[in-house]
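Recap for those who missed Tuesday's class. We walked through two folding examples back to back. For each one, the amino acid string is listed first and its predicted structure tokens come directly after. Nothing is annotated here on purpose, so try labeling regions yourself before you check the end of the notes.
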Amino acid sequence: MSPHSSTADAQLPLSLKIASAGMAGCTADLMTFPLDTVKVWLMVQTQSQSTASRSSAGLVRTVINGVKQNGFLSLYGGFAAGLQRQVSFCAVRIGLYDSVKGFYMQLIPTSTNSKQVPQRILAGATTAIMAATMFQPTEVVKIRMQAQTRLPASQRTYTSSVQAYRSIFRHGGIPELWKGLGANATRLSVVNVSELVTYDLVKEFILDHKILNDNPICHFTSAFISGFVTTLVASPVDVVKTRYMNSPLGTYKNPIHCTKTLFMQEGMKAFYKGFVPSYLRLGTWNIVMFVSYEEYKVLAHAYNNQHRVKKINHVAATS
């Protein structure tokens, strides 16, 4: 935890920190969801589809074709499921990060000058696995609803997120709703560690060397770097997770089989399909999420202080 913000953050109730993280995730998703949809379109496109219609393989052509065939709103297909995912995942993986990081720092103490990177990595992985284990169905529904927006409305399987949950449960039960948990937990751990640890360290470096003050410009810079590192590291895992979760029952035995099949059939480049929209999306998402998260925490601090003053005044008036 940064020495510049640890005291203030420690005074903020966990419930307000979780709420701030959930709202920040929704704010970021609202602005970047179309990029995420295009990324999914590219990732689920097989080599045979790309070869049969090379004009649709590129990012710009994919967007133009999708919007031309199904309208601009197709870019927001599954948006309700996306918000459900963000508010739940971010509340856990980001909202609990500082608390879990503090736990590991006490459990595995090091020297005062240490950046305690292993403890940060453990915290990021832990909260990511917690989020995926608890809310995996929201990820499955989001992916499938985004993927189907490439099709005409008459050919789509799901009409709403509620109907999607019911349909998936009816046809595959609990295992189908939690399909790809291992792949998603792995991917989310990589993303969470890359995002939060990179943001943490870059922000601390900027503040420790007095390059910038603790303000939105500092948060923007830290988030921008965090987004690039995260995209570079997480793209291969993201492709496997997306392909596996969107595949018909029985296509792949498990995520490892999916990885081998992709490599054998499509080569290494398959793992970086959708890299450009992934970078645009993750970079933008990180900037909006971290900047808004810091601002939401400021508002939460103000609310908490106001509530505390009112409580003290009430106690004084009644005593």
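Example two. Treat it independently of the first, because the proteins are unrelated.
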Amino acid sequence: MTDHLPDSFYQPFLSDAAKIRKPSPIHVLVPLESTPGVISLMAGKPNGDMFPFRSFKFTIAPTTLPNYAESLVSGAPLPGEEVEVELSGDTLRDGLQYGPTEGLPKLHEWYYGLQERYHGRKRDESWILTLGSGSQDLIFKAANSVLNPGDVVLIEAPAYGGVIPIFQNLQCEFVEIPMDAHGLRSQDLREVLNSWPSDKPKPKILYTVPYGSNPGGFTTSEDRKKEVIELAREHNFLIFEDDPYFYLYFGDAPRPASYFSLEQHMPTKDGSPRVGRVLRFDSMSKVASGGLRLGIASGPAPLVKAINSHTSSSSLQSFHLGQAIMIALFEKWGYEGFDAHIRSVSTFYRAKRDIFQKVMKECMSGLAEWTPPEAGMFFWFKLLLNPNANAGDDDGDSSDLISNKAFKNGVLALPGAMFYPNGRKSAHVRAAFSLLSEEQVREALRRLRETVLKEREGV
């Protein structure tokens, strides 16, 4: 018996739209052009000789130096010298031309190696990957490939606000699974599934951001992830692992393994295949460039192929020039250079987190409660709006205070209510610490403190 689920397993998971979606009959044949000895009269590609671009040159920062990130945070002179990279030749020609829907082959090879390096997943284990215009583009296509209107979605709460409309537009029913300082509360998920009505179809997917979740900043522990995988097997759902902050982990403990990694190591109770319930979404937006729009989906071939079919019928392909730029960067770095850059990135955001934490203690102690994040770029804190509240009282709602009163006082943040799919009230606030200097953080939190104190006077 193979250790991965067969392709036929995914047929019930595909949406009605995915089952009838037909790719471009011409684009399907494009890979045949690379057959040795074949002369192609097929594709209507423009002749690359008439493209005006001959080369691009860019410089990259000396991120391999251990004190690079500290210099950026402190404002000290940057150590080392910038490195020049040239994009030209075949890589540039491929980036400028029509090409494979799933992305440029060189970048595919790089990411197969990266997934093995960070998640222990080798490319011959019945999974494939595809490249998209950011991970949200891939999540949108995955959701539309799996969900029918009215389907139920298990979703962590609070949840990433950008993904909620994707499911809302499919008229999905949300079942919120709470989070706390240790991430997704797997025991709550178990209770929800064990009490599921017998006459109601069970959910097809669980959506979760396991590292430095947006907005909560929570990182889900390995033990909880293992329980979630067990529940996925028991109750037959897929895990959409949206992980844009994986490389922004800066916790003191070793980084917990991903769902994508863990599922291959956990034996099933009945000896059935272990691998194939995780569809993983990675992003280069937080570590290389948000504007290049490079996302990666890795997982079971039928699901990834459904994503590609959607891309083929909508935009033909993602941004290949951006992919060519990343190829030139990665070839200059190698995997060791990428590792060094990631260490620098996590060091940088840890320093930003520490500054925000320090000023929060100075300005908001007694006015808010929070757990410092171990990854990502967000602080999630609950405002103590009623100084006379007793335990168990309604926590209140931060929406008016944050959206109106704090904004009028010169500070802009996001009220917690917008991150709950079912529209509940929340006294929480999401604050991003990625861009601000210590001086700006101090002034922003001083204004927020002033606003909260004024609000409490009126209680």
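Answers for example two:
The longest helix spans residues 320-364.
DSSP finds 13 helices and 14 strands in the chain.
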